Fold this sequence. Notes:
- It contains 3 helices and 7 strands, in the order E-E-H-E-E-E-H-E-E-H.
- The protein is an alpha+beta fold.
- The protein has a single domain (7-112), classed as 2-Layer Sandwich (HIT family, subunit A).
Amino acid sequence: xxxxxxxxxxxxxxxxxxxxxxxxxxxxxxxxxxxxxxxxxxxxxxxxxxxxxxxxxxxxxxxxxxxxxxxxxxxxxxxxxxxxxxxxxxxxxxxxxxxxxxxxxxxxxxxxxx
Length: 114
């Protein structure tokens, strides 16, 4: 039996895939920012700000990546102070997202201890 994946396509050819948790953009944790390109919320696992591209895939256009990094930097500075961007997509490798992590740490609790 073959499963069918449903998708919604934008005018630019970007897609949102039915069944993708990041495409669904359910508000499970605190949200810090959202616009037409991305949304930023606290990662459910890491408890750090995470930026998510609104569209499914791992290669957003360069201008979208720049926009997302700028927004993430603003949120992360307010939430964590010094930070770095971790672009490794560990648990959801097929949808672009990146985490802001506290300098010298990995989880949000690492910043709160300081």
